[in-house]
Amino acid sequence: MRFIRVTTSDISDARPELKRRTTTAAGDTEASSSGPGNEKYQRILDAAIEVIAENGYFNSPVSAIAKRAGVADGTIYLYFKSKDDVLRTAIDATFQRFYNIVEERFKTLSGPREQLEFIAEVHLSSHTVNRSMAVLMATEMRQSAKFIAEFSHHHLVKYIQVVREVVRRGQHEGVFRQDVSDGVVAHCMFGAIDELLSSAVFTGRVYDAKTTATQVMDILMRGIGHEGK
């Protein structure tokens, strides 16, 4: 069982309205403009991912995130409601980039087999694109029910749904067997890639995303494809 260490920074998380009135060292209230595209906003998101990946969610007070981002503690509350909000936003942005890449590639990649392989490749490449986020997802997802329930569950559901849609289309086109569950296939695919990513995180092993994705999908396709196809 984990014991939660309460710090003054964590206590202040519960009172963001006080923090939003924090002023800068010069005595001027921070600029009210905030959101995607703002340089401090992005620094805070990046810092949160790095700090939580290194120390774990419960051992990462807002003060540590602020220090890594190079801003005052109160500045974070000009952009986010709480530490939870920072982490949720970082995860949302990461998954949204993933879906944007997949959606764009699907415009020119129509084959169900090729689409599944591309999803696997992008998923596997996340370790090299943003290692801290890969570490965070691999560690927190396995250790915290709170993390799964509050931050990642709906994204995992969407990931599974995207794969299921591709599998169903492949079944309709006669590429994949009709007697297999698209949901089972989607979970098997996610599980296999997620385990490979965990191996990379915990052992330092390096995988070539494209080559490994091809191998994973070859194994999967031999199970759901018609014989000889």
Task: Describe it.
This protein has 229 residues and is mainly α. The protein folds into 2 domains: 8-81, Homeodomain-like (Arc Repressor Mutant, subunit A), CATH 1.10.10.60; 85-224, Tetracycline Repressor, domain 2, CATH 1.10.357. Helix content is 71%, strand content 0%. The protein has helices spanning 8-13, 16-19, 39-55, 62-69, 73-79, 83-106, 112-129, 131-143, 145-172, 182-203, 209-224. The protein is elongated and about 60 Å long. The model is unreliable at 1-32 (pLDDT under 50).
Cα-to-Cα separation, first versus last residue: 50 Å
Instruction: Compute the CA-based radius of gyration.
Output: 21 Å
User: Average pLDDT value?
Assistant: 79
Number of strands: 0
User: What best-fitting shape do the alpha-carbon axes yield?
Assistant: elongated
Structural class: mainly alpha
Total helices: the number is: 11
Q: Output the CATH topology of the largest domain.
A: Tetracycline Repressor, domain 2
Q: CATH top level of the largest domain? A: Mainly Alpha
Parts with pLDDT < 50 across at least 5 consecutive residues: 1-32
Order of helices and strands: HHHHHHHHHHH
For the report, how would you describe the main beta sheet?
none
CATH architecture of the largest domain: Orthogonal Bundle
Task: Compute the number of structural domains.
Answer: 2
User: What multimeric state do the chains show?
Assistant: single chain
Helix content: over 70%
Can you say what the CATH homologous superfamily of the largest domain is?
Answer: Tetracycline Repressor, domain 2
Percent of residues in beta strands: under 5%
